[in-house]
Amino acid sequence: MIDSILLVDDEDLFHLVFEDACSLLDMTLSLQALDSSDEADKLFKKWFVEGPIDERPECVFVDLNIIGSSFDGIELIRKINTDYGNGVVIGIISSSDDNQEIEKAKAVGAQFWIIKSDEIEPRLEEFVKDYEGYKNKENPFKVYK
Amino acid sequence: MITSKDTVEEALRKAKAKKVYLEGNFVKILSKTLPADVKEYVEECKARDKNARRKRLDVTKQVQAQNKELEEAATVNKALVIELQNEKDEAEKLRDKAVEDLDVLQKRTQFELVGQIVRVALVIIVSVGIVSTTMYLVGLMMNRDTTLLGNAWTNLIGILLTNSFSIIGTIMGVKYATGEGK
Q1: What is the C-alpha to C-alpha distance for residues A131 and A91, in angstroms, rounded to an integer?
Q2: Residue A11: CATH number of its domain
Q3: pLDDT for res B87
Q4: Mean pLDDT in chain B?
Q5: How close, in Å, is residue B89 to chain A by CA atoms?
Q6: Are A29 and B54 in contact (CB < 8 Å)?
Q7: Are the Cβ atoms of B57 and A13 closer than 8 angstroms?
Q8: Is residue B131 scored above 60 in pLDDT?
Q9: Identity of the residue in B57, B64, B67 whose CB atom sits nearest the CB atom of A24
Q10: Rounded to whole angstroms, how far apart are CA atoms A43 and A51?
């Protein structure tokens, strides 16, 4: 089980889908959902500068295109990995499967890419199985199709 | 009611008696070493919570799918509206062009009519001029009294000359308007 998860996605309905899917799969006991990358950026900045750093979530799922935000999911991952000390399992959850975007995400340190669809549970289930590998930085980047 | 003096077990028993079922991840962190009756209640809560979440997940997915369909339909509608607007604009342009052409055609017909009238008038004037001049010349050659004929011829030629300029001017104008001169 993942200790705590942060979801950054502009679609409120997906927050509900993700929360219920996580609960049904017993993925985590603590899930926080944000709808903008700016909010997530503020939180990570606060945790990194002021602490406590252990308040940070263990795993972060970021949407690729976050409408209403100053920057997209890839830029958020870059900021977390480069500016805010890394230390979290982080990746993209998006309906897009654009190879160029996937390569960009990989380049900024994303560890996984989960494709959103009606049947998200099997992909999350597979992700949970691989999770320890991501946590220990042993698993290579993977796309869950 | 559950009070602060109640232990977790007592609180859970009270909730069970009231048929109040716990929901969410809190149920998952309750100890697995609870007495059998309380454990049974906790398991019931978990099952109910799972059932409710499954239902909610299905409904949310349906709503999500419907939203997606609506968004797609809205995009198609928007494209259709733009297409219709373009076609309307095109039709309006064609209508304006047709109205303009009709106007030009009507004007041309009118000018052509005026042109014909003017040409006929010119023929009449020239004919009258030729006839009166011939009569005057014949009178002169035959040594007849041409006083009346001479005055009439002078007057007539004066009037014809004056009018000819106006008629020629009209003909030029008509030719220009009908585009014959091009």
Answers
A1: 12
A2: 3.40.50.2300
A3: 96
A4: 86
A5: 34
A6: no
A7: no
A8: yes
A9: B57
A10: 10
Cross-chain residue pair B63–A13, CB shorter than 8 Å: yes
CB pairs under 8 A between A and B: 35
> What ipTM was reported for this prediction?
0.79
Burial of B49 (0-12, 13-18, 19+ CB in 10 A): buried
Contacts 24+ apart (CB under 8 A), A110-115: A110/A74, A110/A77, A110/A141, A111/A139, A111/A141, A111/A142, A112/A141, A112/A142, A112/A143, A112/A144, A113/A141, A113/A142, A113/A143, A113/A144, A114/A61, A114/A144, A115/A143, A115/A144, A115/A145
**Model pLDDT for residues B149-163, shown as the tens digit of each residue:** 888 888 888 887 888
Q: In angstroms, what is the C-alpha Rg of chain A?
A: 14
| Number of structural domains chain A divides into | 1
pTM here is: 0.69
**Closest CA–CA distance from residue B40 to any residue of chain A (Å):** 20
CB contact under 8 A, B56 and A20: yes
Closest CA to B178 of B113, B117, B123: B113
pLDDT 10s digits, B7-63: 888 888 888 888 888 888 888 888 777 888 888 888 889 899 999 999 999 999 999
> First vs last Cα of chain B: how many Å apart?
106
Residue B181: pLDDT over 60? no
Instruction: Return the domain boundaries, chain B.
Output: 8-178
Does the pLDDT at position B124 exceed 90? no
Residues of A in contact with B56 (CB under 8 A): 16, 20
Going by C-alpha positions, the residue among A135, A122, A72, A128 that lies closest to residue A100 is A72
A17 touches B at CB < 8 Å:
yes
Distances (CA, A) of B143 to A12, A83, B146, B154: 120, 128, 8, 18
Cα separation of A107 and A141, whole Å?
Answer: 10
Q: Show the domain range for A79.
A: 5-144
Token pair belonging to B162? 């004056």
